[in-house]
Every structure is written in C-alpha cells, then in structure tokens.
C-alpha cells in the first residue's frame, strides 16, 4: 500500500509540475498576445497616419489640377490675343506699304514737275523760278516728312 501511496504521490507531483508548466506556458502565451495587441495598435496608428497623408496628397493633386486648368485657360486667352495682334500687324504692314507707295508717287510727281517746268519755259531758271521750286520742294518735303513720321509711328506700334 505504501508503494501505491508513493506512486500516487509521485503522480500527483508530476501532475502538479505539469500544471505549473502549463501555467507558465499560459502566461507566456498571454504575454505574447499582449505584445501582439500592442503591435496591432501601432500598425493601426501607422495606417491612420498613412490615410491622413494620402488625403493630403489627394488635396494637393486636386489643387494642381485646378492650377493646370487655369493655365490652359490663360494659354487659350494668350493665343487669341496673339491672333488679334497678328491681324493688326498685317493691317499695319499694308498701311505702311501704301504710305511708302504714296511717297514714291509724290517723289515721281515732283521730278515730273521740275522736268515739265524746264520744258515749258525753255529757258534757264530765274531767281523767282528757283524760289517757286524751293517752295514746292519744301511743301513736298514736308508731306514726305509727315508720311515718313506716320510710317515710323506705325512701325513702333508693331
């Protein structure tokens, strides 16, 4: 009986040791679970920060798209302005060409007047003739100067 009691006592001690090991193992598992929960909370916080960051990036992209649209509109307006300026430049060039042509005509008429005067009078020019010619030259030179000034102003507008 004594043997049986010893065996029972030894069995009970073994069961107690096994229970102790199981309690230690359970405590280790609990500690690991606590660490896992902490890690999960840290991961959740990081994900929250990443979501906030993503929202900020989305807002910045939206602002950039708005700015790009505004730039496109400004470029369209500039193209229209350039087209208008080109049309005005063509018109100014035609006007300048017409003024130059008129100036050349005035010069030809002046030369013709001098030639006709010499043919009609058939004589050498007197002081009066020279004075009249000088007056006509002055008049024509003034017209020419005014036309060239107008040409210069139109070129400056370009």
Automatic annotation (TrEMBL):
Name the source's superkingdom. Answer: Bacteria
Gene3D superfamilies cross-referenced by the UniProt entry: Methyl-accepting chemotaxis protein
List where this protein forms a coiled coil: 5-88
Which key words tag this protein in UniProt? Coiled coil
Name of this chain's protein:
Uncharacterized protein
């Amino acid at each position: 009986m004594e043997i049986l009691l010893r065996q029972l006592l030894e069995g009970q001690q073994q069961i107690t040791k096994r229970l102790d090991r199981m309690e230690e193992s359970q405590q280790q598992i609990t500690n690991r679970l606590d660490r896992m929960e902490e890690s999960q909370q840290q991961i959740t916080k990081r994900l929250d920060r990443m979501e906030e960051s993503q929202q900020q990036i989305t807002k910045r992209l939206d602002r950039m798209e708005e700015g790009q649209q505004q730039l496109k509109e400004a470029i369209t307006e500039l193209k229209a302005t350039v087209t208008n300026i080109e049309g005005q430049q063509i018109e100014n060039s035609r006007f300048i060409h017409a003024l130059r042509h008129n100036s050349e005509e005035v010069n030809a008429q002046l030369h013709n007047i001098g030639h006709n005067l010499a043919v009609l009078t058939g004589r050498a020019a007197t002081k009066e003739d020279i004075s009249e010619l000088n007056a006509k030259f002055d008049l024509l030179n003034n017209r020419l100067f005014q036309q060239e000034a107008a040409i210069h102003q139109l070129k400056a507008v370009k």
